Structures are given as C-alpha cells and as structure tokens.
Amino acid sequence: MHPLSSMVTKLLIFFSIIAPLTFALQATDFYVQDLPLLPKGASSIRMHAGLLPVNPQHNGSLFFWHFEKKYPSDKLRTVIWLDGGPGCSSMAAAWTEIGPFRFQDENTIIENDGSWHLYTNLLFVDQPVGTGFSTIDTDSFIHELDEMANQFLSFLDQYMKIFPELLENDIYLAGISFAGQFIPYIAKAILEQRSTLKLRGLLIGNGWIDPVTMYKSYLPFAVANNLVVANSDLYNRINIEVKRCEHALFKQATEAMIDGMTWNGGTGFDFGNGTLSPKDPWIVDGESAGLIQSAHYNFIIIQTTQSLFLNHQNIAAEDVYVSEQETFTPPSPEMKKSRMKVY
User: Fold this and answer.
1) Yes or no: is domain 3-209 CATH 3.40.50.1820?
2) Could you tell me the sign of the dihedral formed by the alpha carbons of 205, 169, 88, 35, in that order?
3) Higher pLDDT among residues 245 and 205, named by residue
C-alpha cells in the first residue's frame, strides 16, 4: 500500500471516532489534541476539526480543519481554502501543499517549513456536501453553484457560532482548479448576504474560470516564456488543438442555449426565464436565431429567408410542425452555402 494511502486510512478511522462528537456546538468538542504519528513538538500547533451540519434533514454536513497561526502578525487573517474537482477534498492541500504537515512515509509525519499557517489562520473545508469527509444522503448532492454558495453560507453561520473570532479576521478565499468556479459565487454570496464578514480578497491558482479565454492564453503564454517557438511545428500543432477545443466549447454552449428555447409561434422564442424575443426573431444580422423542435426532429430557422431548414437531411417535410404564420422551405444548394449556422 502506498504510504499516503495507509496514512489516509488511519486518519479516516480517527475522524470516524471524533465525528459523532462534532454536533455539540462548543469549540472544545472540535479541539484536536493529538494525531497518529504527529512529530515531536508539533502538539503546539492548535487545531480544530470536525463536521458542521448544513442540511440536517438529509444528513448533510461539511468537514473542516482549522490550523491556528503560529507567529504573531500585524493583522488577524484567516485563509479559507477550497479545493476544486468538483469533489476534491481540501485535505489534499492541507497535507500535501500549504498545511503544517507532510507525509514522509507511512510511519512518519514531518512539519512543513513553508506552511501558510505560520502567519495566518488556515481553514480547510471539504465542500460541497459529499466531498472528502463531508457527508450527505446519496440523493441530495448539490449540482448548482448558487446552491453551493448558499450551503457554504450555512456552514459559515454554524462555524461562527462556535468560533465567533472569525468576525474579527480579514478573510481571504483561496483555492485551485474548479475552486475558480466556487470562490466567485461564495464571495458574491458573502458580500450580498453576510456583510459582517471582512472579506478582503480572493486567491485563485490555476483556476477553472472561463475555458474559452483560458485556452486562448495558453499558447501565447508558452511563446512569451520561451516554452514554445512561434511558428514551429509544435506551435502549429498546439494551435490546431486550441482551435478544436474552442470549436467544441462553442458548439456545446450553443446547443445548450438552443435546447432551452421554446418556439411560441408568432410571439417568438421563450428562453425559459419568462421573457420573449421579438415577433420576428430570425431577422438579426443574417444569423440563425435558434431551434424549433417537433415531436421527433430539430429544425433551424434561417433568418434571411424566414424559412425552416431540417437539421436532419432525410426527413420528410410533413414531419415538420409550423404555425400558419410560418412556412417550410427545403434547403436549396445556394442556401446551404449561405451564412446559415447549423449546430
């Protein structure tokens, strides 16, 4: 067994013992007095860990691990760390990246000289529910980012009942990868709904924020840092792959948007949010406005011709539903060469 796997197993057993105690909302119930294989002298590091309920009716709780700063500093600061994934435990960062300890082998924990806890409090949270040590019934996972943010506010509310000193700290939300999605939503929720918290900044490393923008930056960054030579064979191969990624992302986004449209005859398109487009939605810069769906097939509106084109070539015209205000016209070769966008 890999040393890290063995140690993680021991920690799982340890926290399975302390977890039942963590619903008593007192700081002493969360105090970590010792850990298996803790290095000599490391007991001076004050730690609190446990589960806090955020969705009791579905056994939903978030696991946290707090490390108190080691040295005095000019300000009280707390960095709240969230890993990405989604679904990656923040304990990975606590034990292999910025936390006080490192696994040297399956029988040895050593202190990390570069730990962030030297001058700031560190709060690692496994979220959303179901991540890492956090718990939830299998039919109650979080799927939307705004739901995740509201759930995290519930966690902070519970946390501040036990550790009210957080209100006196400057708070920084930090994380990597898909936390680039989590952090902005949580920050927005804090600013709008928990203004008593002193949110001072966001730290996002290698954040998964906007793939289209990010993909475009990779190759110029590599060239600027002498990792790739401009116009070389490698450069050209990478450029081709970037274009393929961009096309796939645009196609996926367009299909998702179009699939959400509902045709309402002469009144236009319903985008699912209660608003309708103009009565003649297809006349917009000569580009296709969207998709009409019959019981079995999808069709494209061609804005410049006010006609419907089949998205599947060998479908009979009688399968198309159109209202009295629209007409169906099979695509001619000339129209196929026009600016029609078929997704």
Assistant:
1) yes
2) positive
3) 205
